[in-house]
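Reopening: structure tokens for the coenzyme A complex, inputs below.
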Amino acid sequence: MPNGIDTTITAGVLEIRIDRPDKKNALTSAMYRAMNAALEAASGDPEIGVVLISGRGDAFCAGNDLADFMAGPEGGEAAFEFVRAIATFDKPLVAAVQGLAVGIGTTMLFHCDLVYAAPDARFIMPFVDLGLVPEAASSLLAPATFGHARAAALLLLGEPMLAPDAHQAGLLTALVPAEDLLAHARARAAALMAKPPQALQATRRLMKGDPAAIAARIDEEARVFREAIASPEAREAFSAFFEKRPPVFRRDPGAD
Ligand code: COA
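Re-run output (same inputs, fresh job):
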């Protein structure tokens, strides 16, 4: 598919493949819109029981396309819609992660049920480094998954988490050798398809806890994110990325 998202349906499993390897699978607004449409169609289609998300190439996903973020708050709107779509999606989600998972490449995984990763997977949430704040309820779900102190290293320092640590910390279902990753994830998705669908869906709902709390946090994050994206800190971080230089942040940007 020319928009960077490839979708296929096999025996009731919708596979959404992020397919923009030359840009490390960074997600543009068009790609979010394609994923949102695929999730919406899957949600309303009784023949589809499971969704599997994967990425082509050496990186799972380098997060939001920073050029879209540079365009201002409207550049993030399709991403917010994706966050809401994946957080409220009512069928099992499986993910296969290799290489880098940055920003939403990591935060979407909090909403997936079975997450398989290759040993080279690295999870990075560099929101603060970009002058931004966490999204996809990760400000709630990262501390809940890792505890506050480990989440702080990820969210405040932006430190990467390596695959074995992510597995041990509970972000991942299992580590799988890279060459078997997709086949393994597909086999587990097929195993879910064979389960009684009502019991599966009801169990998943029970496991996910209070959807209102997640939704409220997503909205709260989005409000702060929209302000941050237009801030001098964020503009400097985005410019520095594309100019391939270290960013320079001013301690008191309102001083003059
Ligand atoms: N938005 C837009 N373009 C991106 C991108 C992103 N999030 N991530 C990578 N790219 C582009 C690079 O600009 C580069 O394009 P070019 O070949 O035209 O110069 C290409 O993808 C390859 O990336 P490169 O930086 O050369 O690869 P790398 O292996 O050295 O580093 C990353 C990979 C992912 C660590 C690095 O690209 C990066 O830090 N990207 C930004 C991640 C990010 O902050 N995402 C937003 C989170 S909210």
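The radius of gyration is 18 Å. The beta strands are 5-10, 13-18, 50-55, 93-97, 100-102, 114-117, 122-124, 161-162, 174-175. Marking as resolved unless the reporter disagrees.
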